[in-house]
Amino acid sequence: DDDEDEDEDEEEDDDDIDVPTEIEDIVEMLLTGLRDRDTVVRWSAAKGVGRITGRLPRDFAGDVVGAVLQLLCDEEGDGAWHGGCLALAELARRGLLLPSLLPEAVPVVVKALAYDVRRGAHSVGTHVRDAACYVCWAFARAYSPSVMRPYVRDLALAMMTVAVFDREVNCRRAASAAFQENVGRQGHENFPNGIEILTTADYFTLGIRAHAYLEVAPFTARFPEYRYAFIDHLLNVKLRHWDVAVRELAARSLARLVPLDPRHFGDVVVDKLLALSLDAELLTRHGACLAAAEVILALAKVPYTFLKAATLNRVRNLVPRIEKARLYRGRGGEYVRGAVCRFIECLSHSAVGVSRRLALRLLKTLDECLRHPKPAIQQLALSALRALSANALSDGGDKDTVARMPVAFAKVLRDDENPAARRGMALALGCLPASVVCRADAPARLAVVVDALIGATKVERLVSRRDAETRKNAALALAELCETVGTATSTTPGLSTADAERIVAALLACTRDYSTDTRGDVGSWVRMASARALERVARVLLAAPAREREARLAAEGGAVAAPWSAGWQVQTPYGLATLRAMRAEGAVCEFTFAPPALGAYFFAYGPASIARGTVEAWMRAAAGSGAAARPAFAVSPAAERGQYLVPDAAGKIAAAVAAGTGVDGHPAVPFAAPTEFWTPQMSRDTVGALLRLAAEKLDLTRGVAGGVLTRLLHSDGVTLPAVPHAAELKALVPPVAAGAGSGLTDDTVGADVDGGDGDGDGDGGGEAAEAGADEEKDGGSDDGAEGKAAEEAAGGGAWEGVMNWSVPAQCFPVLVQTLALAEYAEDVVEGLVTSVGGLSESVVKESSIALKDWGTQAARAGKDRTLSRVALALLGLMGWDLESAKAAAKAR
């Protein structure tokens, strides 16, 4: 009773306080300042509102809080929302926002956390969302867990949505900090799974937007409390975002959530995405089409997932419906084209059946996109064509269409006047699968493709038809064609030795493309592409002996059918399945079955296992043709090995192939010497061309050529054979390349380069080193101590084993040492001339100093023949008669 009397006395005292009229004017000015255009004014006004309200009577303070809440309405602008949130946070911090007002305050705070108003080509609201996170942080410190319990779920969902999906990094981090404060002060029971989420969603992991979307969001969505809020937010907000990068990330993030609830996606999300893909708003249909593609592909990877028949029909008919509605037209139509290309690619990779009629319709769409002037659209169409031709057109597709496709592409590449069409068709010819381009019953098809691509690498006679991008794309397409088709063997079709020689010669010619136009040295694009292509072609051609060995083994009946080869079929307890990929480092096989089984199925068929049914089929086939034809590498099936698998059979076969011995009493196949596709002259020409490019004036060109040269000299895998002066080159060139362009990736337009293994440790290439040493002994170098001098100049591992070829101060002191190597002097001189006589001050300075220092050292050492060789190379570049000059030098 005494406490109640005291409270009543305090209320009476508050009522008795007479607030001066000036205070009302000041409060009015502060509330007006919350709408000010300047952030510093709004922030100061919010501080003032908090301080003054704390000294006012309760009723007056309640009026101020109500006035602040009125600022957070749709009629107000972003400034008022920002100022209102700041003021609300200050009031909450000071205990002036009573719990009775939380039912009114929490919904507007949740709305502020999602505030994003589109204005023109961008949006406003970042500062509002950041201030709303401040309000959530203040709530955590101001109220007890029992007071906040009714509002925790809404605030937690809103904060985590901002933390993982907001476009701005400061908002993601602010939301994470607010969530962490709430979990710490409100308790783990109030905020579901808060501790587990905080271990993943922290300040650093949310700093990179892609990591937040693709890693943190799927982890958080494992908890059902957040999963469906995330799905709804991506569907209704982020797929319609004005930033194309956010829409693309949203589509990929949505696909990452599919395994968490595939039934929900198959029954609800897919239908909604298909409907939104035909929306009147450009941004919505672009994001929805991308998301539909990614979700369908993700569903195909989930075991035991089925789509309704009506949904499947809508999926197959989406592209025709988009084209019928003419949604490619108008501003931003290229976005829809790109999304459609991605949809076709995912549709082809998924288990959704593509009929012959639909495949032809999709092929027509991709043909139009390949002719599009924007390289990004061409690249997306290229990926889609690669998937469609491999999955829907290669084996079971229309034979007439398959036969006409390479010829039609080659004709466009050869005759079309549109440069964009020629660029796209060059890339298209390189991406076609071997089953389309290279068939034993149609050998002329491969010849047409090779001729067209080689012709496209040459500089056109007519100036109006010259296009550097076409030549660059043709060079890259030749490399991809070699990787796809491979070399011919005694039993399988492929590239012949004549084709290999022509391809290598064409790529070497591309390294001398110095054409220019109004854009500058456009030939550098061709030179860089040809350098990368030479590396890829070399790896394919050098692997030809191993390919021939396996083919001859297969011809003898002991086929090396490894379970980790894509497309391999195995008999399972559920029927015949086709291998899609290996998982868990080879411990698990991912299989697909014939429709209507839409998803993938996983079995513990590791690399050391092989299907018993396959082994028995080999033996039955061999027994039917006589005892003499018994498979060379067949493993006798034993009862204890299981009904469906014969463990270790593949391992035994691989070991026997490597050792040239038999397995389980069966003899090894005698192998003849395979045909050599890569010659020593190719090695010399390739290394010479790379040294010339590495000595050029352009930093990016040097980086690309240096990276390729480093990998070819020091790779653990395939090493160039019979490289002249291989030992000296390995001593000069560090085993690791760094800098722009040194990797296999190509950031320029139209590139489609597969990533490689990068750098070796310098141990490989023993045969090449010995070959170089033999040539040295045979008189390849006319200065006896030059090889040793070159090694000493390199410092036995200069730059601590790393070379940045794009930095002139690092590369030129090493490159000038190769002038002492007779085989490469002319190539290096040709490259150095462009650097010494260039316009870039840093390149001119470093190359001139390096060349002068090397010449001075050579003169002091009495290496007159080396200096004469360099001088003759310079005279040759100036058009002198080298034969006469050499004869005169010998006479003296």
TrEMBL record:
The keyword Chaperone applies. This is Tubulin-specific chaperone D. Residues 686-735, 803-877 form the Tubulin-folding cofactor D C-terminal domain. Residues 5-195 form the Tubulin-folding cofactor D ARM repeats domain. Residues 743-795 are annotated as: Disordered. One of its GO terms (biological process) is post-chaperonin tubulin folding pathway. SUPFAM superfamilies: ARM repeat. InterPro entries: ARM-like, ARM-type_fold, ARM_TBCD_2nd, TBCD, TBCD_C. It comes from the Eukaryota. Residues 754-764, 772-784 have a biased composition (Acidic residues). It comes from Bicosoecida sp. CB-2014. Keywords: Chaperone. The lineage of its organism: Eukaryota, Sar, Stramenopiles, Bigyra, Opalozoa. Signal peptide: none annotated. The keyword Transmembrane helix does not apply. Pfam families: ARM_TBCD_2nd, TFCD_C. GO terms for molecular function: beta-tubulin binding; GTPase activator activity.
